[in-house]
Design brief:
Length: 159
């Protein structure tokens, strides 16, 4: 999970409250993003399920996690906005969980040596480890790329 604030304890507290609720509802917690806007906080919870996230999913999760978060006064008396969202197609593939969710998915890869987007590699994630990812190209070739050499990796969008 990616954490966007210095206070990891705050994010861990939110996660400890919502993760069991999400699992009971058959959702996966992808990310918690905290944005401070003056004294107000925006707490965005990104969720995943096979087949995608609908507006009804977001409404259900909001309903189920709002009361437990309010009961523990998650914002220490300060106003906050709770946002429930899907990771979105524009979210880069970074973590092992991202790779797991995108196995077999068509992706766009740009390596650090080949930063020109005109030369991006389009293929499918076949395997991954903590250090490498295997991409099968349109031509059936398998490329093994060191994860440290990945500049960008996103789900491919066909228009």
């Amino acid at each position: 999970m990616i954490i966007y604030m210095d206070n990891k304890e705050y994010v861990q507290k939110i996660e400890s409250i919502i993760k069991p609720i999400l699992e009971k509802l058959s959702y996966e917690l992808v990310e918690i993003k905290i944005e401070n806007i003056g004294i107000k906080k925006n707490i965005t919870i990104f969720i995943y399920k096979t087949g995608g996230i609908s507006l009804d999913d977001c409404v259900l999760v909001d309903k189920e996690v709002s009361i437990p978060l309010d009961k523990v006064d998650i914002s220490d008396g300060h106003p906050y906005t709770l946002i429930i969202s899907s990771p979105g197609l524009d979210r880069p593939i970074i973590s092992n969980d991202d790779f797991r969710r995108n196995l077999g998915v068509k992706v766009d890869l740009v390596t650090k040596q080949n930063e020109n987007l005109k030369n991006k590699i389009v293929g499918y994630i076949k395997e991954y480890s903590d250090t490498e990812v295997s991409i099968e190209t349109k031509l059936g070739k398998t490329l093994v790329v060191e994860r440290t050499n990945i500049k960008t990796l996103f789900p491919h969008l066909d228009f």
